[in-house]
Amino acid sequence: MPLIFHTQLARLAFIFASLFTAFFLASCAQAPRATAQDGLKNEFWTGRISLQVRSEPAQSFSASFDLKGSSERGELTLVSPLGNVLGVLRWSPGEAVLDSGSGKVQRFASVDELMAQATGAAVPLGALFAWLRGENAAASGWSADLSRYQDGRISAKRSQPAPQADLRVVLDR
Question: Cα(92)–Cα(95) distance, rounded to whole angstroms?
């Protein structure tokens, strides 16, 4: 084989190994939980989230995420498997915003409308924060399974209102 082919093959192997190492190291990184200025704990989670909505046609959504704040005030960044930011959701009392990049910002009357627009179903944000802390909070129409919480896995199902939905979260540890 020509020497040029071996050089290109070695260069590709080096690039692949470098990318693999970068992804591996990035997946190990975890931001510390911070304390807000008012002394309250500022919650922070990273991981992967998927939501399947059994509508006609069926909808499916999955992404990596960074979530910080609380159900009253926070920010959720959704990232595609290729590393592209799909959107940044921000909410506070009286304000809910979806920034889908490229200068497109949408405003919503409530965080529930914002979550429904961004994920395809109204995810109960207050209950989601409790589930992420390992607390089995009630949410109308939803039932959570925290049996694998110690493994960083949370699942919840929505039976009402239609359509049914399945939410799965895998936390980075």
Answer: 5
Residue 27, phi then psi, degrees to nearest 5: -70, -20
pLDDT by residue, tens only, the chain of 173 residues: 554 433 433 333 333 333 333 333 333 333 333 333 333 456 899 999 999 999 889 989 899 999 999 999 999 999 998 999 999 999 999 899 999 877 789 999 888 888 888 777 788 999 999 999 999 999 999 999 999 999 999 999 999 988 899 999 999 97
Q: Look at the block and give the residue holding tokens 């399947």.
A: 52
To the question of pTM greater than 0.85 for the whole model, the response is no
Closest CA to 31 of 43, 19, 49: 43
Query: Which DSSP string do the residues of 116-149 spell out, in sequence order?
Result: HHHHSS---HHHHHHHHTT----BTTEEEE-TTG
Would you list the domain boundaries of the chain? 1-30, 34-171
Q: Please, what CATH class does the domain formed by 34-171 belong to?
A: mainly beta
Across-strand partners of 95? 92
Residue 50 identity? S
Q: Bridge-partner residues for 169, per DSSP?
A: 49, 154
Torsion of CA 99, 100, 101, 106, to 10 degrees: -50
